[in-house]
Each structure stands twice: as structure tokens, then as C-alpha cells.
């Protein structure tokens, strides 16, 4: 058996090679982003101007029921764009939901897709758009650079400030039969255009606002402490952290604060850009497995796991955590980097408590921990440049801290 310290050397080499690969990402098309109140309707105009005559709208049933999609439908109709709604997407979209959407797309001969919703709808739309042009089954797309052909034109209107999926190369899919989630990561998954319209987020319930906001914060934090961070991703991650720390408490207190909602949308976008190149880490690897096994919402799982991971990682990234504390407005004269790092982690725990996010995972069972740890390590060590590595035994002890 290879000693774990030797494995770490190989992990570091592999992560460095992935970092080199990200240098070529600017060669791929980047989505155009329009921002501000009403930008979702401007996006509809862009769809019509692109010559799209038949459009598939991918969303969830609740957004259709509350009428959030209706203004876009009416605008598209006025512009002469025929549309069909597929609203079969649920949290943690499954292969079956994606394939059902593909059936609708083919039946209606849609030329493009408009995703309206949170990360689940956007991720599902990405994979539907990929399946429309790639014969490969969804499960065979898992991993890096496995979408061989360009996807259908994809337009995106996020209705939560969380995943940043509107500007990322990733989509996360659930496989309930295997009790796992897997990520598809390829620059071809980048949307054609996205609209960041904070007015669509004013009615988000506080629990969803909190979970998605902490999801965006996780993206910024893990991108910043990643060993594959760059000066460009650092600037994006720090600015996203600043915006979230300033505006998430505001929208939790006053959900209709349009300016704060808009800033949260922009923060999620910046965090998405940061982690597209720098990657994420153990928070996501463990949270994905909590979601797959216990159906724990992704943002909520990230929020619970994040302070534990930062405690573990701190010896290897103290200064980086201190930088995040400064960005969050937590610095005061005379504090050491270690004190600032502790202050930042404490602030995350305080926000979780303030927002009603638990510190433990109620559904976590001790007998599940070895399998969760193994799956999380497999994901992280193949994909993420974490600051401090764990072996299987360490990861099991680590996850056990979250037993209720």
C-alpha cells in the first residue's frame, strides 16, 4: 500500500496539472452577463435577436405556480418566440429528470434553452443542452472535459443568489440508485448569456435565502484557500466575500431590499467565476455526499460543513483565512493572522446560528460515515486542490463531529 504522504505528493502534482489546464479556459467562449432590474426581459430580447423561434424553458413547478416565469413568457410571445415549459426539475436533479427534459426538447424541436431557477434548474438545463448534441449518456459525461460537442444555445436567469451556475463550467447531477452525486465539468457547459435580475429574488423565503447565500460564500472561501487560486480568482473571491458579508444579513432581515438582492446576485456570479478556475474543496465533497445520501439541500449542507473544514484546514491556510476576515470587515488593530482566521470561522458559525442553520446533520448515521468519507475523498482528491489533505481515518473522525 502506498503511504499517504506519498499519495499527497501525487495529488499535488495532479492539481498542478489541472491548474495549468485552467490557463486555457479563456480560450473558450465566456457567457455574456447583463445585470440589473428588468435584465431578465432584456435577455428575452437577446434570444429573439439571435433568431430563436422555438425555445424550451427549463424550470421548476413552484416558479411556474407563483408566476415568476410569466413575464418572460409574455415577453417571448410578444417577440414571436414560441416556447414550451418543462417544469419537472426538483432539487438535486436526477438523470431521469434530465432525460425527461430531453424528450420534451426533441418533441418540440426547440432550438435553444432558457433556464429559469436556482442551481438545480440551471444545472439540469446545461446537461439537457449537452445531451441534445451529444449521444453519450449522462453518467458517461461525469468528470472533466467529457462533453465532446458544443451544447445547444443556453440562456440563464438565476432566481437565487447561490450556485453561480450561470457562469460556471460545471453541472451536478444526482444518481439516486447509487446514492451519489457527480459533477460534469467542461467549458462547453458555459451558458450563452445570463441575466442577473435581483427583482426576481425579492420573494425568496428566508431559509432558501440563507442556504443559497451561504452556498455562494462557500464558493468564494474555498476558491480563495485553494492551492490553485490565482491573482484573478483571489480578487473575485475577496470581493464576493465582502458583498455577501455585507448584504446577506440585509436580505435576511428585509427580503424586498432590491439593492441588496442585486448585490447578492453579483456576489454569487463573482464567486462562480472564482471557483470555476480555482476549484472548491472538502466542503463541497462532503456536502455532495450528504445531499446524495440524505437529500440535504446543497447550500444547507455546505453551510453546516464549512466551519468544520476551515477549522481543519487552518494550519495550512491561516493567512488566507485572515485575508477573508479583512474582506469581511472583521479586522481590528493588533490582531495576528491566527486571530483573524479564528474570527472569520467564528463569524461563519454566528451567521449559521443567526439564520437557523444547524451545527449538526440530524440524519447522519455513524454506520454511513466510512462510505461517505470514501466517496468524499475520491471526489476531492481527483478534482480539488485542498490546502490540507485528509486520509480515510482522518476523514471519518472529521465527519463524526457532525453527528447530532
TrEMBL record:
Residues 31-197 form the Alcohol dehydrogenase iron-type/glycerol dehydrogenase GldA domain. GO terms for molecular function: alcohol dehydrogenase (NAD+) activity; metal ion binding. The keyword Zinc does not apply. This is Alcohol dehydrogenase, class IV. Belongs to the iron-containing alcohol dehydrogenase family. It comes from the Bacteria. It holds the Pfam family ADH_Fe_C.
